[in-house]
Write a structure and sequence with these properties.
By secondary structure, the protein is mainly alpha-helical. It has a domain at 72-197: Helix Hairpins. 73% of the residues lie in helices and 8% in strands. The chain has three helices and three strands. The protein has helices spanning 2-20, 67-131, 135-197, and strands spanning 41-44, 47-53, 62-66. A three-stranded antiparallel sheet has the order 1-2-3. α2 (67-131) runs antiparallel to α3.
Amino acid sequence: MRKFASITIALIVAAGVMVALPADAAAKVSNGVACTKLNATTSVSGSKYKCSKNPLSTSKKLTWLSIDCLNSAAAYTKSQKDSLVLIANLTAQIPVIDLGITTETANKAEAQKKVDETNLRLTAAKAKLAAATIPADKAAYTSAVAAWTSAARLYTSQVNKITLNIRKLEAAKLAATTQPDQLKSDVENTKSNAQLICTKGF
């Protein structure tokens, strides 16, 4: 009878010990396994885990998450926030770029008009120089040809410079209109990578 009583007491004590074990020990630690102490850490087979809320989920439940999972989730969250700022900045740039293109297009038209007028005067001066017979006239027309040639080169250079500016502005506008989609795609890739690393059971 005493032996039976001793066994009974031992079983009760053992049961008490089992009940006292942490709930975290009931299951192998891996992504998604419930835990109770926020920010608690542990290691399993060389992999570190932390008790935390899953940043990729709306659930407030505490679960074990690998450090790689948490880092990947943090990278996704940061990329998402950064992309929103960048997209807003790019969108705001488009009207400014459009204004620049409009202004430079008008400047180019004005410069091209000067090029055309200068070339007409240059052609006329060359014709008069070719027809001149008096040395004084030849000297005057020679100077005129040189002056109009210089002016034509100057205005042509301005047109080329403005054309280059317009191309740069158009390239900037193209980037501003296409980069938002690329940024969204990059964010989704970052999210998919984080979800993979945070797969339950890993």
